[in-house]
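Page header: ASSEMBLY MODEL / two components / 616 residues total.
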Amino acid sequence: MSGLVALDWGTSSLRAFRFDGTGRLEETRARPWGIRQLPEGGYEAALAGITEGWPALPRLACGMVGSRNGWREMPYLDLPANAAQLGGALGIVRAADGMDVHLVPGLRDPRGPDVMRGEETQLVGALALHPELAAASTFILPGTHSKWAVVRDDAATGFRTLMTGELFAVLRQHSILGATGAEAADDAEAFARGVAAARDSGAAGAPSRLFSTRALMLDGALAPASVPDYLSGLLVGEEFRAALADGLARRGTPMQLIGEAALCERYRRAAALFDIELPPPIPDAAAHGLWQLAAQADLIHSRKLHAC
Amino acid sequence: MSGLVALDWGTSSLRAFRFDGTGRLEETRARPWGIRQLPEGGYEAALAGITEGWPALPRLACGMVGSRNGWREMPYLDLPANAAQLGGALGIVRAADGMDVHLVPGLRDPRGPDVMRGEETQLVGALALHPELAAASTFILPGTHSKWAVVRDDAATGFRTLMTGELFAVLRQHSILGATGAEAADDAEAFARGVAAARDSGAAGAPSRLFSTRALMLDGALAPASVPDYLSGLLVGEEFRAALADGLARRGTPMQLIGEAALCERYRRAAALFDIELPPPIPDAAAHGLWQLAAQADLIHSRKLHAC
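Prediction written out in full:
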């Protein structure tokens, strides 16, 4: 029997994908067992639980499971790095069932410095699905810590983390900008206004316009219920402004979203206000990337499995 | 008897200054009775408490006491605005003792939009103490919400709020950047590194470098205990970068700090890394400004007082 159990193991969630020996995805499972909220029994119990009933197959995991606070710390691979290099740098942790779990290393951009864990696997998956983007492209991976990654000649050559999602959350929950006294309403127009304010903020940047959110509300020019969408627009717009200012994204070079549909849709609307048309996002890039890396590392038909 | 009771009444503190009829400051008192933490009995009780034993004198207050959540909301005066215009736009609230409290309006920069309350009075005081700055200067008022204000021909012509202090607090207390597991140490070198990173961040800006704080720590290149000072340097440096990018500050035009000594000292160190030499800060600018505005409004020898 051949195949792969691929694990996308982050801070707050764990997803498992079972592939057959030809790379066909046979089953997907998700549990809330991120590395900060493991079930009783820790990593071993989470792994046994999410793969219950599945055959003994090689196992490969990416994400925060390989971080300092994870199951085993995997060193970062410095840029530039491609799929072959990542596949050649897998680590191993031995599980209680006597079988190995292979771990994908993260990537490090020494120029930031900046680091990623998990997104490197999504990049590999996205490039396997869209080889036309391998020559030159920028990938946008929105989230708590959004990543903008530059690909040249099939390798990641630079990336940067923008703390958009986390900034939005802490500003809403803990700053004066969140003290609106109103339930948040869905307001696409306020989001667009925020994006435009970021776009038009010049070299000073949108963070120097954060307080205008409050001033607009005091002016009566922004409904308290629309403050969150305006703030979200300001922060998402700032990603595009900063990425264009920094050369992480270039007009004329393809840009591609990777991620969850609803969040990516906000980025597509923001991009449109920068006169950038983004295609629909690539979903399930992590699963595809794990398969690719397992193939690179020759795990799928590995004799190591039978030796266990 | 002539003189003035001047009140600097903010969100978290209340300060009272008693002037004689010649403008000599005779006594200063401070209480933790900002508008969000008033004593039992509210504004009336706070006023009676802090002026206890003082003679019946005209009273003038600036700051958040005139905000929507204050004692009485005072409309903002749009820029450009000078001391005479501010003095001519005072409002009044009648206290329980039958005497008036005059209130200074805030300022509004319609281009942000942006707003200030209290800092306009500090600007008036600073310009009275330093008339040589009235022709052309930029004032920097560091704080939870730092203000950078441009003065031309004795009037405030533009300003912007940078949420530096609040951003620092929410990032330290509620974001991954605060999760260092270490007690903060005083590290002037880490502060300087943060300032330099902001200065060198180009048009992308320091907010796009926030995550590098974490990456440097993971690298072992920044001690966990020094993360707060690095982050502080990044955010204070960003004020200078953005202000220079925006034309709020110009090399060759005097820049002057107003505020508390220790905080202003950090700004002087940051400025030095931008090759800007800042003179020592102006203290007690609010008290001086209140006296100036009271004089402008002819409150000090006012007959209104005797009519009460």
